[in-house]
Amino acid sequence: ISTIKKIKLLIVIIFSFMATNVKLCTPNGNCHNRRMNKLLIVPLLLLSCLKPAQTVNKEEIIEAMANSIAMKYPSIQHISPIEFKKIKSDHTLLIDVRTKKERKVSMLDGAISTEEFKNLQKASLLKKHLVFYCTVGERSSRYAQRVLKNGYKGQVSNLRGSILAWVHEGLPLVNSQKTPTKKLHVYSEPWSFAPDGYEAVWK
After folding, report:
1. If you ran DSSP here, which 8-state letter would residue 46 be given?
2. Mean model confidence pLDDT for the chain
3. I want to staple 78 with a disulfide (CB 3.0 to 4.6 A). Which of 9, 29, 62, 70 is the partner?
4. Which helix (H) or strand (E) holds 176?
5. Euclidean distance between CA atoms 199 and 55, whole angstroms
6. 50 near 8, Cβ under 8 Å?
7. Going by DSSP bridges, is the β-strand pair 173-174/199-201 parallel, antiparallel, or unpaired?
8. At 175, is the pLDDT very low, low, confident or very high (cuts 50, 70, 90)?
9. pLDDT value of residue 112
10. What count of other Cβ atoms lies within 10 Å of the Cβ of residue 120?
11. Cβ neighbours around 43 below 10 Å, total
């Protein structure tokens, strides 16, 4: 087995054992503990780790990764794509923390980049609910946590499962011309868990 494949295997095993118990919060403040059965999730991860694009249990793997990220960043809310759609309004601001190269492939409609976010006047952010996303939620959770530490007093959330969970819910993406697309950048090959019918790129 190659070194790259060993790394993929190690990543998914770590995620599976981290994702056994997690506290989830909805936008209205209701929280509950969710327990994952690691004996069930580990085989799924092991079967899919070598060829992620060909696995049939992509949603379960994304869920396991999202759970581990929520555990790692308990100071912020983690809201699902469906929950975000319910609360989306003029008071929510969606921020894509991925690189320019990733955003050029596709974004969530209405999202802004971190560069645009930094250029916003502080007064315009008052009372805004900031929702950050990336590929699966690690980078966006880290960014959201930093925003809170820098003194932002409004509501801050990570989009749980981020763009991968978004497309698995059948929600739309737009390209740089703001037209619908089914192509998305997944950061690197180990995260190639886009649903059938989507084109995942990572180079």
Report:
1. H
2. 82
3. 70
4. none
5. 15
6. yes
7. unpaired
8. very high
9. 96
10. 13
11. 11
* 24, two tokens: 């989830």
Nearest CA among 25, 57, 54, 30 for reference residue 44: 57
Chain-centre distance for alpha carbon 90: 22
What is the C-alpha separation between 26 and 80, in angstroms, rounded? 8
Candidate from 12-16, 41-45, 91-95 with smallest mean pLDDT? 41-45
3-class SS at 141?
helix
Is the CB of residue 143 less than 8 Å from the CB of residue 158? no
pTM as predicted: 0.79
Q: What is the pLDDT of residues 137-157, one digit of tens each?
A: 999 999 999 999 998 988 999
* Single-letter code of the amino acid located at 151: G
**Which amino acid is residue 135, in one-letter code?**
T
Alpha-carbon distance 160 to 195, whole Å?
17
Contacts of 186 (CB under 8 A, 6+ apart): 135, 164, 192, 193, 194, 200, 201, 202
